[in-house]
Each structure stands twice: as C-alpha cells, then as structure tokens.
Design goal:
This protein has 237 residues and is of the alpha+beta class. It has a domain at 101-236: Beta-Lactamase, CATH 3.30.450. It contains eight helices and eight strands, in the order E-E-H-H-H-H-E-E-H-H-E-H-E-E-H-E. It is elongated and about 85 Å long.
Length: 237
C-alpha cells in the first residue's frame, strides 16, 4: 500500500509483515547495525511471565547510555560556549589595543560588554588622573579614592573577580538609581601589580546569571586586559 504526502511524493507504507520479511531475508542486519540494539525493546520472558535478568540489565544499560549521552551533549555545549567567549575576548583585546584615549577605551568597553557579552548594566569606577581633562569629569573617575577603597577593599585584597550579589550601598555606589534592578553581577578588580585602582561591574537583571560558584577564568582575563588598557592612559592615585 502507498500513501500520498503533502508535497505530492509517493511513499511506501511499511507494515510489520514487510519488516518481518526483510529481517528474514537479511539475518545479519543487526550485525551491521548493532547500534540499533540499544534502542530496541525485545521482551525476554522466563517461566511464569517474569521479566528475565537479561532484560533488566539491558534496560539499565540503556539508562546509562542516555545519561552518558546527556553528559556528552552538555560538554559539547560548554565547549561551544567557551569557543564563543574566546572569540569575544579576542575581539575586545584588539579593540582595546587600537583605542587611542581613555574615553575610547571606556566607550569600547561599554559597547562590547552590552553587545557581545549581553550585560544589562556596566559600571566603571577609577581612582586615577589622566591628561584627558574632559574624561576626568566623567562619572568613571571618582573624587574620593579612600571611599572606593573602603567600599571594595576585600575585592582588592583578594585580587580576583567576585560573582553574586553586593550590599545595597555598594550597588548604589556603582549603579545609582538603577541599583534596585541589578539581580546579580560580576565584580572585577582593576589592578596595577598588587594594588587596586578601580572596579568594573557587569550587572544582570537576573538573580542567577552571576553566582559565587561559577567559574571566573574569563572574568579574570578580562580583569587583566582592561586594567592594562586603562593604565595606558591614567596614573593611579
């Protein structure tokens, strides 16, 4: 029997008898396609109608196979995500190298983090001086370096990015009136050797995007990259 598809092509409907006939004609089919055995369910009933130990073992192996496949899929996705991050960090590195002023560095940074890294909010605070007098009037340059150190002394002591939530006063210091919308963030120290001169906050409106248990390898790379880019144009105080 045949059936007509919506595209107008004719396809053959295969019946159970057809399958049975095919397998009889090709008894070595499953030797050539043994991967199908992990998907097939072949009852193996012993006396009294009980399921045999062999069938139970096969079912356990199928479950393990599905679990391993899920783990493999997760690893492949992680590899793809890491490859994407590598491209983004590389792109930002080139842009930072080409920047000719502190203003360009900051503009490029904001654009990249919001566009390529999908940040909902970005804040930079710097305790330093620069020859670009116009830039020093921007909000990124703080007037009170001691306050910056008091707010983020722990961050500078550890010298590595922190992820999760901040205290209310810290969020307000960084994001002002938008502080209430920040659900989670990554806080990067800007360092010259072992001394901190600023912070970079990458904020998200989602509570779970940044959390204390997440990896910080790429964030650490960004911390070093952006610190070097900014230090080309400022003198820390």
């Amino acid at each position: 029997m045949t059936i007509q598809t919506t595209q107008g092509t004719v396809q053959e409907r295969v019946s159970e008898k057809d399958v049975e006939k095919f397998l009889k004609q090709h008894p070595d089919f499953f030797e050539k396609h043994n991967q199908l055995l992990t998907e097939l369910k072949v009852p193996h009933v012993i006396t009294g109608g009980a399921v045999s130990l062999v069938e139970r073992q096969v079912e356990v192996l199928r479950k393990q196979n599905r679990k391993l496949q899920k783990q493999l899929d997760d690893l492949v996705q992680i590899a793809r995500d890491n490859e994407k991050l590598n491209r983004q960090v590389y792109k930002l590195t080139l842009q930072m190298m080409e920047a000719g002023s502190i203003s360009t560095v900051l503009e490029t940074l904001y654009k990249s983090l919001k566009t390529d890294f999908t940040a909902d909010a970005v804040a930079v605070r710097i305790a330093g001086i620069t020859k670009d007098s116009a830039a020093t009037k921007n909000r990124e340059f703080v007037q009170d370096a001691d306050q910056l150190m008091q707010q983020f002394g722990k961050l500078f002591e550890e010298g590595r990015p922190l992820c999760g939530r901040l205290k209310q006063n810290q969020r307000e210091y960084l994001f002002g009136q938008a502080a209430e919308r920040i659900g989670s963030l990554a806080l990067l120290p800007l360092m010259k050797q072992k001394s901190g001169f600023g912070v970079l906050a990458i904020g998200s409106f989602e509570d779970t995007r940044f959390h204390p248990g997440m990896g910080t390898v790429y964030l650490n790379q960004l911390s070093h990259l952006i610190s070097k880019a900014i230090l080309r144009f400022i003198q820390p105080v």
